[in-house]
User: Fold these one by one.
Assistant:
Number 1:
Amino acid sequence: MEINNKLIAHTDLFNQLILLYRNNKLPNKILLNGNKGIGKFILVNHFLNYIFSKNEEFKYDLKNFIINNNNRSFQLFKKKIHPNIFLIKKNNDKKYIDISQIRDMISFQNRSSFNSNLKFVIIDNLGDLNLNSSNALLKSLEEPSNNVFYILNYNTGSFLLDTIRSRCIEFKLSLNKTIHKIIINENLGEDVYENISKDLLNYYNDPYFTISLINYLNENSLDYSKITIENLIHLIISKGDYNKNKFINDNISFFIELFFY
């Protein structure tokens, strides 16, 4: 699980959540609504590390919005074994989040918490729930266990039961072009954003997409400053990466649309 140690976007919301937590007013059912790839999951990681690292070595650097890589809770969360955090993500070999994952979540929330700390259930994308798993989650939201908090990430435009949304306090997230640029350059190197091919730049809709595409081009020794849609499609077809590469597979219809556009 890749986690950005430095929080660049959504720092205002991050501070708002901390203030709610400090004042014992943190909602126990939070819905983070925003486009795919804008850093909702990263925001959750930083917020949880702030909470759980407070009484540990190498606690969260609140002034600079940085997770210390040596922090125990950070390492446990990366390995998906933190005793007070239950993360649900769609398995790569599945089309949806399986109802068995929701049942495991219910078992987790019914167990006693470690050191009597708060427990958090994180669902990385509500749009990956099907109707059965959505209804199972809804029942848990209607009857929450003591000391259990839900943070639910939702990619705008994907499937979501209105009954789930209505039971949560919703926060809407977005990125402006300036923050998008800072994230790209922070992850890939200074001034990368300014040098991306103009044939593609206008179509980048989120930092995750941009970073993944440039990494893909670098892996194939292609110049991201000169690549065209036509050359990209030719590479994808010649290598068969529409079947072998998850990023390409997830976005192949988008690339084809750009080609004909």
Number 2:
Amino acid sequence: MVGEKLLSIRDLTFGYTRERPILKNVSLELETRSIVALLGQNGSGKTTLARALIGINPVERGTVYLGDRDISDLGPREISAEIGYVFQNPDHQFVTDQIDEEVAYGLKVRGYAEDFIARRVDEVLDIVDLARYRHRSPFNLSLGERRRLSVATMLVLEPRLLVLDEPTIGQDHERAQHLMRLMDRLRERYGTTILMITHDVRLVAEWADRAIALRGGGIAFDGKPEALFAQADLLKESALLPPPIFEVSKALAKTHPDRIAGPTLSIPDLIRSMIA
């Protein structure tokens, strides 16, 4: 399912002062059609890293590449056409008083034709299940609906990378699942890569193809979520707990070794093993 290289970070070091860098020699690559979780304690550099990708935190030349283009050569409009950023608080993104106008805004400022904008807005509102509210104010929506609207304002530009900053804050499990099903459809339909900054380990266990854990401004782990959850010391240092399904998997591996291959089964494999 994962595709070609989308973004490369090479030895990224960033700080608001030279004496105290927040990120230290971070290198990684993101591929198309992937859902990647970025985890770590508060202050570990997660949001700082994400904001470097969209130009809020300036980086040196030769540090971040979008495809084969150096991001330091791109302007804000070029970056925002390729990378969408959904802030932790969706209300911080809204600039109009009507939902359909909010979704249309990014296209209007780029000079797209009115008929194209109308078709695109209709399509995106259907995708995020907000078409019936199109004439409402964004601030009359529930928190979960406002989160979907903030996603829609980025989605309308068809970004290749969508960054979600703590997407489940203020949402119950059902709303979080609805949002992640939407992310999975974007991945399938458009080949979008999703980078989610999160502390929600259940979300990571169920949806992420890959987990990246930051500690002290550097990468402490980069790999499959199941492998991360098996590293108790790293989880403790990152103020994370393994998801309940992982604990169940370990317990079953001890009590039913003939049916459970090991403590790092994926959720679908675990369920199949339990009902076999």
Number 3:
Amino acid sequence: HQMCNLYGMEQPCVEKVKASTRNAVFKVFGHERDFVLKLFKVSGNYNRTRVAEHTAYEMALVDALCERGVPTAAVISTAGGELPFVEGHPALLFERIPGSVQQKPEYPLGSIGAALAQIHQVQIDCSLGVEGHFTFDEMCMIWLPQFSTYLGNPGHEPAIAEALQALLPAVERLNPGPNRATLYGRSPSVHCHGDVTPKNVIVVGGDARFFDFNNAFFGPRMADVIDGALEFSLADKYIDLADFGRFDAFIEAYDRGSSLNPEERADIPRWLELIGVIKFTKELRVMLERPAEALRRRRALAVADYVRSRLAV
């Protein structure tokens, strides 16, 4: 009924999709086309009271990227152009892109790096004009204090306790805020995807396209680049196929589409510290909430081990 009112669809077919998210995802068939409906229930890199605000930001960001010719899943506007609510939750209806999501290696890193580079470069060339109310440092101020909380909690298993202690010097180098601000200033600020993982890339005819900007933020592009380098090394849920040889390969693939400046290249170790600590902390949170999920423990320790080996922390 709500789909009829919001989008003028007559008797649409709606089917819930099993997805690795606490948001709700549905396949929708209407107007003789396939769509994806997403209901936003939780937040990732921002306060959960701002879910509706971030959904509106995501809608504006995707619209602006599509206008610049960036291939992604476009948002379908409601009849009145307003942010829709479905079952009490902010929602977005996306066009469905036919293609394959390649969560398992081997990844077409050349195409994936080029796709992320395009998202950033169109903004470097000319601002999108989208307000950046959600910033990268706001995300840091959620996860860096959370790391300190976990550090102070007793009872961690030996491997996790050792990783926390080993990463502590990196966290101390990242604080206070002005230390991070100096780092940010050496990388162009853009609207970042915020979740550069295999599950958010679809390959269409050999070309990669990013979708799902649910964790987008405004900040230095290196946050996205290093996030992607780590995630494509970890291989999503296929942790047995993790290969950190892909870390530098991802960065070089990105660089071919949007050249990193000398300062960004020099700062890769510092960015690895920052994004690595945040990713470790996120994995640890889920591991502690759902201890039966062995994957999260393995991902957390893999990130910690790579940061330590790369930086001799």
